[in-house]
Structures are given as C-alpha cells and as structure tokens.
Design brief:
alpha/beta; 37% helix
C-alpha cells in the first residue's frame, strides 16, 4: 500500500473571486488515489521584516510554516502580476525559507507543482518562470510537466468559479500524478524536507 501524500495548496491571490484559488479547489476533485489537499491562507501573513523574525515568527507565519512542515508537497497556484509572481506569494515564500532556532527550514527540499490562471493569453507563463527561479534558491524539486497555464480564464470557469474546461482538468490530473511520482521518488531516496 502506498503511503498517503499530503499536499498543501497555496494560492498567490487574496481576491475572493480568484481563478487561481478556484484552480486549487478544482484540484481537490482531481487528486490521485492516496493524495489529500489542504489549503493555506496567506491573508494574515505580515510583510517580511527580519527584525520581526529575530523576535520570533508571528502567529500567522508560524501556522503557515507548520502547515508546510506537515505537508509532503506543495501545489502553488500563481496569478501573473507585472510579468511576475504576486508580492503576497513571494512574501510567504520569504517567511517559509528562513531557518528556525533549530536550523530547520520548512520549505527546503519540499516537492512543488505549480499552475496558474490568467484572463490574458499567456496563462501565467512568465509568473511560473519566475517562481521556478525562486524555487531554485529555496532548493525545491519542481514538477516540470505538464505546465498548467490557463489562459482566458473567464472562459474556463462558470459563474460559480467551477472549472468547466476538460482539457485543463486533464492537464491538472497529469500534474498531480507527476507530483505523486516526485514525492515517492524522494521518499525512496530517503530524502526529507526541512533539513
């Protein structure tokens, strides 16, 4: 029997009607057997300030770091703002990439899959490229294919933000299966995150 895989979903958008948050909800219905998905809330995380960090992580940040530590992998849905990732997402990554008093870094080595939705024609390709660059530094293995780049998102969701596009569902299923493969590969190699 395969060990369960706990995935933490992170949306880089705080907007209530976010297509990226809707993608994460859709992913929850497309998971391979044995995989679960919880979601993080970035809305309470303050701007990164190392003076604050030196006094101890704020409660919202500590909760987020603990969610990452408890997860086997991350699923990040990013919008594209000004050809890059949103500040709220980069800020959360900055908080999660710092060591605690025991030199543990919850983000380090955690397998990641990413996806994104945009109302434009490029489907967050530039934001995902920048996110990959950030995740090189944080030492995260990333699922490379398929790239889930949802363009003209308003045509792919209904009025209740339910994903209606079957091609996108197929890409998401494959992405999640490949994330499971990546997690199991790292487990077989005896590699663990947070060290």
């Amino acid at each position: 029997m395969t060990q369960p895989i706990r995935v933490l979903g992170i949306s880089g958008s705080l907007r209530q009607g976010s297509y990226n948050s809707a993608l994460l909800r859709a992913a929850g219905h497309l998971l391979p057997e044995g995989m679960t998905l919880d979601t993080a809330d970035l809305s309470g995380i303050p701007l990164y300030n190392d003076d604050v960090r030196a006094q101890g992580y704020p409660d919202a940040v500590q909760d987020f770091r603990e969610q990452i530590s408890a997860a086997d992998a991350l699923l990040i849905a990013t919008p594209e703002y000004n050809f890059s990732i949103p500040g709220v997402l980069k800020n959360a990554i900055d908080w999660a990439s710092r060591p605690d008093a025991n030199k543990q870094v919850p983000l380090k080595g955690k397998p990641v899959a990413m996806l994104g939705a945009s109302t434009g024609l490029f489907g967050t390709v530039r934001a995902q490229h920048h996110l990959r660059q950030v995740l090189v530094y944080t030492d995260n293995p990333v699922v490379n294919t398929p790239q889930v780049l949802v363009m003209t998102a308003k045509d792919k969701f209904d009025a209740n933000l339910h994903l209606t596009d079957e091609a996108t569902r197929g890409f998401m299923r494959d992405l999640l299966k490949n994330l499971a493969v990546l997690v199991n590969m790292y487990r077989a190699q005896g590699q663990t995150a947070g060290v």
